Amino acid sequence: MPAIDCLTYLGRWPHPVPDPGLAVVEKLLRQFGVGKSLVASSSAALGDLVSGNSIVADEIAKSDFFSGYVVMSPVLLDESLELAQKLLARGDFSAVLLSPGPQDPALDSEPPQLLVKSLLRFDKPVYVRLRDTHDLHGLSSLARKFSTQHFVVGEIVSSAWTDACHLARNQTNITLDCGGANAVRDKIKFAVDSVGAHRLVLGSSFPLCHPIHALGMVRDADIPAWAKERILQENARRIFKL
Amino acid sequence: MSTDLSTPVDIGQKEPFLLGPGAEPLVIDIHTVFGPWPGAMADTSLKSLLEILEKNQISQAFCASSMGILIDGEAGNELTAETCSNNARLLAAGAVNPAATLHAGEVVDKAVENGVRLFFLFPETQRWEPDSLHAAALLAKLAETGCAALVEASKPGTATKLARAAGELDMPLIMCGADMNTLVEALAAAEAAPRFGFCSHSLIAAGALELAVSRLGAERIYFGSFSPVLYCSPSLLRAKYADLQEREKQAILGGNARRFVKGD
To answer: What does the pLDDT read at residue B262?
Structure first.
């Protein structure tokens, strides 16, 4: 079955490569065997919640290939909840993305707790972009406090990968995204052995990484084919209800 | 001819072995190591490296022992030379740490006597500045002996310092590690220093490899995987399926690295 890319971005990043637009992204992902992708707004992830999420809402309406993340910020609680009300009711938004900025409060502080508490009624997974290892501690507290909320954590740097696996092993409402820039071999086998293949998904973080970067890691991972299938699509289908 | 985006690619299928016009194997990995490596999550032994090269049909790989990079350049280079002499797939790369020895020049000489033509330099890991006096002496020595250097340059500022220290030397210098946060600086360094190039494994962002080719030319980009520390397929498939002309891909995958193979 075609793979599911759990995280791509629409829009520019402060990088020298232009945004190709969702139509080109879809064509590229299909070329590499991806049949569905969840997409978030890069500008929303960088702080412009309202217009960023709005652009994604308009764009994903044009293609069944994409499902959307509503990007939220704990420091913009009212705007975030308004967006949740408006967009999570749509069938083409499957999850929430939290992208804490460098100056934003710790994940276990009051603003993120208030935000997550408010999201419980929507019953959507929350993807957390990890800033650093401190975020793992904050996420651990958040996940323990809101044990019915499912979290997906991703863009985990190599130095935090072992700790992230240990966290997910002990906290069953956390799933790990084994994509991202970190290509240390064999982080995927390590995660399968310590957390379980059923607790892993794959996101490319396109355009921060080319999709073949993440797909290549799964290709090389020393794990059985059934585990790769779970990582490539079965788990995402279940977690994001695709 | 560019990659046809309408043709589905099954990355699970066996990749066709890239051959040159004379049926010469052309995939050369310019950046591999063997031996214990800090932070490694899998086996980084010689055996593991050879298995990866075989599995991915990489015909040759420049490699250096981790001992040479992390502990003792001279002893490590001897180990590398001995290892590579026993395996036609491996091409010895030298390692030297100018911050760890008063005799960096002699370490270079000895390695060159053993046929080394490419040196791996790790200023960020080994904690020396590329524009420091002892580094300048090392770079000049490498240029004098006709060698090339593959240099770790992932942090802001390193590429600039390299360009200032080595930009006017007659020596190919391949920067390794530039990501999207440092790509503009690294491109500027390479545009200021015509002998500079890029190792491909850090050009992971969508469009980054193609951007580097458009600015510098494919002849200055080299496929390198940093196996077995990193996964091989991300960088190998990235180059194979890049949105580039076939001749550009063949240059990146091995044609360029052949210039450093002894006797070529």
So the answer is: 63
- A 10 A CB-CB count for B170 gives 8
Hey, are the CB atoms on A217 and B231 less than 8 Å from each other?
yes
Domains of chain B: total: 1
Q: And the tokens for A127?
A: 């993807």
Note the ipTM here: 0.95
pLDDT tens per residue, range B90-107: 999 999 999 999 999 999
CB contact under 8 A, A186 and B41: yes
Please report the number of interchain residue pairs, chain A to chain B, with beta-carbon separation below 8 angstroms: 122
**Which amino acid is present at A120?**
L
Distance from the A207 Cα atom to the nearest Cα atom in chain B, whole angstroms:
5
Is B183 within a domain? yes
pTM: 0.93
- CATH number of the CATH domain containing B191: 3.20.20.140
Find chain B residues with C-beta within 8 A of A32's C-beta.
Answer: 9, 11, 241
Which residues constitute the domain of residue A41?
Answer: 3-239
- Domain assignment present for residue B17? The answer is no
Q: Per residue of chain B (264 residues), what is the pLDDT tens digit?
A: 233 333 444 444 333 334 444 444 589 999 999 999 999 999 999 999 999 999 999 999 999 999 999 999 999 999 999 999 999 999 999 999 999 999 999 999 999 999 999 999 999 999 999 999 999 999 999 999 999 999 999 999 999 999 999 999 999 999 999 988 999 999 999 999 999 999 999 999 999 999 999 999 999 999 999 999 999 999 999 999 999 999 999 999 999 999 888 655
The region, left, alpha or beta by phi > 0 then psi within -120 to 50, assigned to residue A95 is: beta
Let me know if residue B205 belongs to a domain: yes
CB-CB contact of B237 with A212 (8 Å): yes
Sign of CA dihedral A188, A189, A194, A196: positive
Q: What's the total number of domains in chain A? A: 1
Does residue B132 form part of some domain? Answer: yes
Q: Which domain holds residue B162?
A: 28-260
Neighbours of A160 (CB within 10 A): 20
For chain A, how far is it from start to end, CA to CA, in angstroms? 13
Q: How far is A11 from chain B (nearest CA, A)?
A: 13
Closest-CA residue to A150 (of A180, A179, A166, A127): A127
* CATH code where residue A124 lies: 3.20.20.140
